[in-house]
Every structure is written in structure tokens, then in C-alpha cells.
Write a structure and sequence with these properties.
15 helices; Aldehyde Dehydrogenase, Chain A, domain 2; 6-stranded mixed sheet; alpha/beta; globular; Aldehyde Dehydrogenase, Chain A, domain 1; 2 domains
Length: about 475
């Protein structure tokens, strides 16, 4: 019922989706998903189902992306477990009314803000972290009391199959359902034809623009988790051995197919060559002389992405790596320099294991270069000087980032995650996931024992004078 087969496409596919959407709307309207105990039980059930399927999830990620087991657990499963455990522990507190000061002065009253679920929501996932980037938003949707349709990526079908199996085994389709099928076909139908109460999308900026435009027809709010060219800025006082390890780890995890991976390095010209040497040594330490034989290094998702990445290699000077195997979708961890800001590799998000290294002379150069690709999803600064922190962090707009590290800010349930403008809108993780999928109602309850006539017509000067005194 929840998997769109080829024979069900076209009119049959839309009919099936419409039936599912109608069933979820009715389920929500009956208040089934709103009850706090029901939400907690649902989160616990989801966690248990994932635990039962853990081995299958890791195997699916290996088939789809050649992900090492460690990366599958640390960057996919562990992120989910942290999120679901935190939600189970905190959802009671998040769901309480929050008392507010009452500013009305003419009669006794009480005020509060009351979180309510938005309704029926759609979560569209990407292929690069195909499990985590569907299931973590789903935790927020469930915790807030919504019904949800999720659309896993069709480019990582093994992982999508496991996700769908988990959802089918755990929930009634009227509550949570997983839709599989071609992304352009199923996704367009879902966004264009149905008035969801919220759409959560993770993917490319171009697709995000299209989803936002289509959602606007229904006045559906959206959360867009996109990308951009996230810089790693290395000052001349940085500890280069540590810097190189952390940049290489952040860049080449998942073969560079990470939305918050360092997209390029911007290094002070005085230490550029030394940093490239350190990066080259670190790649050897991480993946050996022949990364093709490494069990700790992933592969490119498909031929289309592979060919696009290969085209970038023609634009500069390869300092390390550059070798590839088309049949195995392998591209070695690659460092490049002699890159121009006009090259495609510096105008498009790379999303692969190619790391351009550019140099700068002063902080003004840094600001100017980063603003060529404004509003990155992440920014990483390597320095031992707090003055440098202020110069860079206070002048550049970005979603989130680290000082002397890469990527780790995404792992905290206490830090909201998201982009700015072209790199996205909206925040999630922890309480922010709950907030994303909630409407906050403002309520005032007035007493009826006293009903002063001052606010009612007919008005006179005494009314205004008294009101001024009360204010």
C-alpha cells in the first residue's frame, strides 16, 4: 500500500496517494496522534524497530554508498538514537503550556502559549545520508504529534527499502507512511497536489527552490535543508597537523558527499604549502597508499554524480589523488590548487572527494572570497587567536560551524541546525525539531467576575485619562 510500483504510476499513483493523504487527515482530525502518551509510545516503538533492523540498515548503506560500518553507525544510526532518546526524555516538558505575562489591564486574565501539532506533514529525504536525514526529522514530527508521509531517496533504494519496512512494521499507514518511487514523479505529485501542513526537505538548493514555489500555492510552510560552498579557513597561526586531520576527516567522510563538508580550503599564503603537505600525509594515514583498497572509504552514489565530479578534475592542478575507477564509482581523495574563482569547481557545490585549496593574504581577502558564494551552510575557522574569530565570525553569514574543527556542531541536540537563505531556512534537532513541527497558540483567559465599562463605547475623556494611568 505504501510502495508505489511502476504499474501504479500516473492516475493510479495519484489515486493511491490521495487515499493515503485523506486517511492521514482523518486520523489526525480525530486527535489520535496528539495524545502525549501515544507520542512517547510511538517514539519508543520506532527506536525498537530500528534496533531490530540495525544490521540490515548498515548492510543497505554499504550496498548504496559503500559506507564503512563505523560511518554508518556514527553518522546515521547514532544520530537517530541520540535524537529519539532526547525526544522521549524531553517531550513532556516541551508539550507543556508556557505561562506568559498578561498585559491587559482592564480585567483579571491569564496568558499562555500552547504548542499544537501542525497536522499532516511531508518529509523528503536525500541520498547522501539516506537513513539519518529522514528519520531524525521524523522524530520531531512524531514528538510534536503529527501524522507524516516520508519520501526516502530513490537513488539509495536499498536503504529506502529498509526504512519502508521499518515504517510498515511499526505504524498504521493512516499515521506514518513511507512512499517509495521515482523522486521527480512521486515528489512532484505530493508537493503539487496535496495541501500538507508542513514540508521538510533536505537536498539541493535548486530543488529546494522548486519545492518552495510549489508549496506556496497551498501556503504550506517549509523547512529547507540545502547546501552551499562551506569554507575551511586556515589562519597562519593554526596548528597545521591538527587542522589537516580535522579537515581531511570532515571532507572525505562519506567520500565527500556531506552537505556540511568543507567544500574548499582558504589558507593564509604563508602556510599553504605546509598545509597541503600535511593534508597529503593525513590522507595516506587514513586510507593507505591505495584508497581503492581501503575499507574505510566510500564510493560515489551513481554514474551521473561520478561524471560531474570527474569534470571538476580538469580545472586545476592535482596535488594529491585524482585517480578514479568508473566501474567501481571510486574517486580518490583529491587535493587541488591553482584554482580560479571563475572555475566551476568554485561556483558549484562539489559534493564529492575533491578539495580545492586557495590562498589569501589578509582577512579582507577572506571576506571577499567567501562572499563570492555567500551564505554557506557551514563555516570552519582554524586559528589560535580569538581576534581572528571575531573578524571572521562576526562578518560572514552562515548556518553554523566550528572553530578548530569540522562537522561536529551537527551532532548536538542542543544546537539548532540549518542554513541561511540559499543554504536553507528553518532549524531542527532536539527542541528545534519539535518547534519546527508545532504551531504555538497564544491564549488569554479572562475572568468574568469583573467587567469594567471603561473599554466599551461611548467613550469620553475620562476613559482616555484612566487608560493612560493604568498603562
Amino acid at each position: 500500500m505504501k510502495v508505489i510500483e511502476p504499474r501504479e504510476r500516473g492516475k493510479g499513483m495519484e489515486t493511491l496517494l490521495r487515499e493515503l493523504f485523506k486517511a492521514q487527515r482523518q486520523y489526525f482530525d480525530k486527535g489520535n496522534s496528539k495524545k502525549l502518551l501515544f507520542r512517547i509510545r510511538s517514539l519508543r516503538a520506532l527506536k525498537k524497530s530500528v534496533q531490530r533492523k540495525e544490521k540490515e540498515i548498515i548492510q543497505a548503506l554499504e550496498k548504496d554508498l559503500s559506507k564503512p560500518d563505523f560511518e554508518s553507525f556514527s553518522a546515521e544510526l547514532a544520530m537517530f538514537y541520540e535524537e529519539v532518546n532526547y525526544a522521549i526524555d524531553k517531550v513532556r516538558a516541551w508539550s507543556r503550556r508556557e505561562k506568559k505575562k498578561t498585559l491587559l489591564v482592564l480585567e483579571p486574565a491569564k496568558s499562555w502559549i500552547q504548542p499544537e501539532p501542525k497536522g499532516v506533514v511531508l518529509i523528503v529525504g536525500p541520498w547522501n545520508y539516506p537513513f539519518q536525514l529522514v528519520m531524525v526529522p521524523l522524530v520531531g514530527a512524531i514528538a510534536a504529534g503529527n501524522c507524516a508521509m516520508i519520501k526516502p531517496s530513490d537513488k539509495t533504494h536499498n536503504t529506502s527499502d529498509v526504512i519502508t519496512a521499518i515504517i510498515q512494521e511499526t505504524f498504521d499507514p493512516e499515521y506514518i507512511t513511507s512512499i517509495q518511487g521515482p523522486g521527480s514523479e512521486v515528489g512532484n505529485t505530493l508537493v503539487e497536489r496535496f495541501s500538507f501542513d508542513h514540508i521538510f526537505f533536505t537536498g539541493s538548493t535548486e530543488t529546494g527552490k522548486k519545492i518552495m514555489a510549489k508549496a506556496a500555492a497551498h501556503l504550506t510552510p517549509v523547512t529547507l535543508e540545502l547546501g552551499g560552498k562551506s569554507p575551511a579557513i586556515v589562519m597562519d597561526d593554526a596548528k597545521l597537523n591538527v587542522t589537516a586531520r580535522r579537515i581531511a576527516w570532515g571532507k572525505f567522510m562519506n567520500a565527500g558527499q556531506t552537505c556540511i563538508a568543507p567544500d574548499y580550503v582558504l589558507v593564509h599564503e604563508a602556510v599553504k604549502e605546509k598545509l597541503i603537505d600535511e593534508l597529503s600525509c593525513v590522507i595516506g594515514d587514513f586510507y593507505g597508499k591505495d584508497p581503492l583498497q581501503s575499507k574505510d572509504y566510500g564510493r560515489i552514489v551513481n554514474q551521473q554524480r561520478f561524471d560531474k565530479l570527474l569534470s571538476f578534475l580538469k580545472e586545476g592542478n592535482v596535488r594529491r589523488g585524482g585517480n578514479y575507477d568508473r566501474e567501481k564509482l571510486f574517486i580518490a581523495p583529491t587535493i587541488m590548487d591553482e584554482i580560479s574563482l571563475e572555475n566551476r569547481v568554485m561556483k558549484e557545490e562539489i559534493f564529492g572527494p575533491i578539495l580545492p585549496v586557495l590562498s589569501f593574504q589578509n582577512s579582507d581577502d577572506v571576506i571577499s572570497i567567501v562572499r563570492k558564494n555567500r551564505n554557506p551552510l557551514a563555516l570552519y575557522l582554524f586559528t589560535e587567536n580569538k581576534k581572528n574569530e571575531g573578524l571572521i565570525f562576526n562578518q560572514l553569514e552562515f548556518g553554523g560551524g566550528c572553530i578548530n574543527n569540522c562537522i561536529i556542531h551537527v551532532a548536538s541536540q542542543h544546537l539548532p541546525f540549518g542554513g541561511v537563505k540559499t543554504s536553507g531556512m528553518g532549524r531542527y534537532h532536539g527542541k528545534d525539531s519539535f518547534d519546527t513541527f508545532s504551531n504555538y497558540k497564544s491564549v488569554v483567559r479572562s475572568a468574568t467576575s469583573i467587567d469594567p465599562s471603561i473599554k466599551y463605547p461611548p467613550y469620553d475623556r475620562k476613559n482616555i485619562q484612566l487608560l493612560k494611568k493604568l498603562l
